């Protein structure tokens, strides 16, 4: 089966990540919670003088709204692989069971779960399968499978809370990620966020950022996800994130991450261009 990202709006997404070179991905932003079940190699996450490492058979959890550095380390066979689940925030309020009255527990940004119960690993695998075969599963079944994962995490006192964007930068990122191919002008972004262009630029400046820089970062982050999780040709990924020129895309990608897009793929085969389907990396809809 050719690799792709399996997305069910309102539920979540799954992907199979493969990498053939050990690389550092600096300052990667996560909009939604990401769950990585490591299969080969190890995944190292660093943030604010902290570090968490998950090895094969362990589950790495990165909460939404975090910016972290990531290193995917290779196995002795020279490969890193993991299964990824992304949780849609629309499910978070369903984590709490009817007999609970206390507020849900939280965790600090990143956590590795070790010695996983076999039943949890089985639930993770079947949820991934349901998302991958979403045409054969009723949406309500897929939804219950993802909720099962969230309920399993509650057994480890892990709950997610749907936080509104804490600052304008996050709101703009969320908007841009709905369509990274789009040429987002300041006027278009301001309109989608119900503010004037002048206010948009002024507030972003106060947060020490600029719309152009955010657009480039969102595009490169989207490209990184597609390079790791799909078999799309690099030329198709380039076009998907708004670059008609593959060389221009490669230049931007190298400037952002410090290596060429081809460094991730190694000897993987790619899909035929005709097999490519449109895909939005964000689970969130564009703001009204």
Q: Please, could you describe this protein's structure?
A:
The protein has 288 residues and is α+β, with helices and mostly antiparallel strands. Helices cover 35% and strands 22% of the residues. It contains nine helices and ten strands. The strands form two sheets. It has a six-stranded antiparallel β-sheet with strand order 1-2-9-4-7-10, with helices on one face. It has a four-stranded antiparallel β-sheet with strand order 3-8-5-6, with no helix packed on it. Helix 1 packs antiparallel against helix 2, helix 3 packs across helix 6 and helix 4 packs across helix 5. The relative contact order is 0.17.
Number of strands: 10
Integer-rounded radius of gyration: 19 Å
| Tally of alpha and pi helices | 9
Low-confidence stretches: 267-288
Structural shape:
globular
Topology order in helix (H) and strand (E) letters = EEEEEEEEEEHHHHHHHHH
Measured as a percent range, the helix fraction is 25-40%
Residue-averaged pLDDT: 87
Distance between the termini: 37 Å
Largest sheet: 6 strands, antiparallel
Q: Major sheet: order of its strands?
A: 1-2-9-4-7-10
Beta-strand percent range:
15-25%
Helix- and strand-based class? alpha+beta
Keywords: DNA-binding, Transcription, Transcription regulation
GO molecular function, one term: transcription cis-regulatory region binding
Protein name: AraC family transcriptional regulator
Organism: Serratia inhibens
């Amino acid at each position: 089966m050719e690799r792709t990202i399996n997305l069910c709006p309102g539920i979540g997404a799954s992907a199979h990540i493969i990498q053939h070179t050990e690389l550092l991905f600096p300052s990667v932003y996560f909009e939604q919670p990401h769950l990585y079940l490591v299969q080969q190699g190890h995944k190292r996450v660093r943030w604010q003088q902290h570090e968490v490492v998950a090895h094969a058979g362990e589950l790495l959890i990165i909460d939404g709204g975090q910016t972290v550095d990531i290193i995917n380390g290779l196995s002795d066979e020279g490969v890193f692989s993991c299964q990824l689940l992304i949780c849609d925030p629309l499910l978070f309020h369903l984590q709490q069971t009817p007999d609970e009255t206390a507020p849900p527990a939280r965790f600090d940004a990143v956590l590795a779960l070790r010695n996983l119960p076999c039943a949890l690993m089985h639930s993770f695998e079947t949820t991934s399968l349901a998302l991958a075969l979403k045409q054969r599963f009723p949406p309500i079944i897929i939804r219950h499978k993802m909720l099962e994962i969230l309920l399993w995490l509650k057994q480890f006192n892990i709950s997610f809370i749907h936080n509104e964007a804490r600052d304008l930068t996050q709101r703009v990122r969320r908007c841009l990620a709905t369509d990274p191919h789009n040429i987002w002008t300041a006027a278009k972004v301001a309109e989608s966020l119900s503010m004037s262009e002048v206010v948009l630029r002024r507030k972003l400046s106060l947060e020490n950022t600029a719309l152009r820089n955010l657009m480039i970062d969102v595009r490169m982050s989207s490209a990184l996800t597609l390079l790791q999780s799909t078999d799309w040709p690099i030329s198709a990924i380039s076009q998907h994130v708004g670059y008609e020129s593959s060389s221009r895309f490669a230049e931007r990608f190298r400037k952002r991450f410090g290596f060429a897009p081809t460094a991730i793929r190694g000897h993987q085969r790619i899909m035929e261009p005709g097999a490519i389907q449109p895909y939005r990396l964000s689970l969130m809809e564009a703001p009204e």
